[in-house]
UniProtKB/TrEMBL annotation:
InterPro entries: SEST-like, SGNH_hydro, SGNH_hydro_sf. Transmembrane segments: none annotated. GO terms for molecular function: triacylglycerol lipase activity. CDD domains: SEST_like (cd01823). It comes from the Bacteria. Disulfide bonds join 63-89, 129-138, 188-236. Residues 1-31 form the signal peptide. SUPFAM superfamilies: SGNH hydrolase. This is GDSL-like Lipase/Acylhydrolase family protein.
Length: 278
């Protein structure tokens, strides 16, 4: 179904309420059907390059925002029932999302967030680990990532979500995870990364997603798990939905392609119960 079911139910409910109220005001003999379109639900997307859509298609936007990003697709599929603003920006950390939350108001009805990966600086660690001359930097970077996930990230995620729910107290807040970057294969001719490093990358993303899910649960907002939708479509698979080594030239590697946004992120975000609170 292209039209998000939860939004459709919300629109139908509002229309029915308006029609019943209008009929009650009129005299029974002269009742006239009244149809008043509800105001669009105010939707703000927050987060990093995954929420911006960086890597999915060419863009000149300073933050890498594209029309192929899952928030833009969600707004388009709502057929005018969402008033959409994408405040996400490539490179954003949880602290940056708190600053993005100035785009929210008490009238905001829906917020989606994809953030947390940049807090770890794991892409920089991967780059160090790919360089055989940077073994010390690789080892220290991995230790720092593990410490960050265990000791710092839970607090930072909580602070981010709390800032969002405070700025938009009546909004439906949906927080997403990240897809695992590599398929579980012995060999991967298309990506020059060792099996050991591919396993490590997947482990970090799995732990990152667990931290995001736990923070969402603590603050009673909805967490959306992306893993299942991307199953069979990570790098090293026959039909990946992530940008591969070609993205090393423009730093888009590991980001979702347009298909990744449309067939990976969009279905689970749209089906996450957008019209009701967690």
């Amino acid at each position: 179904m292209s039209y998000p079911a939860a939004i459709f139910r919300r629109v139908v409910a509002v229309c029915a309420t308006v029609a019943m109220t209008a009929t009650g005001w009129a005299a029974p003999a002269t009742a006239v059907a009244v149809s008043i379109a509800p105001a669009p639900l105010q939707y703000v997307a927050l987060g990093d390059s995954y929420a911006a859509g960086f890597g999915s298609t060419a863009t000149r936007d300073d933050c890498g925002r594209t029309a192929a990003a899952y928030p833009a697709l969600l707004a388009r599929e709502a057929h005018g029932t969402l008033a959409f603003r994408n405040a996400a920006c490539t490179g954003a950390t949880t602290a940056d999302v708190i600053r993005q939350a100035t785009a929210l108001t008490a009238k905001t009805g829906l917020v989606t967030i994809t953030a947390g990966a940049n807090d770890l600086r794991f892409r920089q660690v991967l780059a160090a680990c790919l360089d055989t001359a940077a073994a010390v930097a690789c080892r220290r970077g991995n230790v720092a990532v593990d410490r960050k996930i265990a000791k710092v990230l839970p607090h930072d995620l909580s602070r981010m979500i709390r800032a969002v729910t405070t700025a938009a107290p009546d909004a439906r807040v949906v927080v997403t995870g990240y897809p695992l970057p590599f398929a579980k294969t012995r060999t991967c001719p298309s990506v020059p990364v060792s099996a050991r490093l591919r396993i490590r990358a997947n482990q970090v993303v799995t732990r990152l997603n667990s931290a995001i899910a736990a923070a969402a649960a603590r603050h009673r907002v909805r967490f959306v798990d992306i893993d299942q939708e991307f199953a069979g479509h990570a790098l090293c698979s026959p039909r990946p939905w992530l940008v591969g080594i070609a993205g090393l030239r423009d730093n888009t590697a590991l980001h979702p392609t347009a298909t990744g946004h449309a067939r990976g992120y969009l279905p689970v975000v749209a089906g996450s119960g957008l019209a009701d609170r967690a």
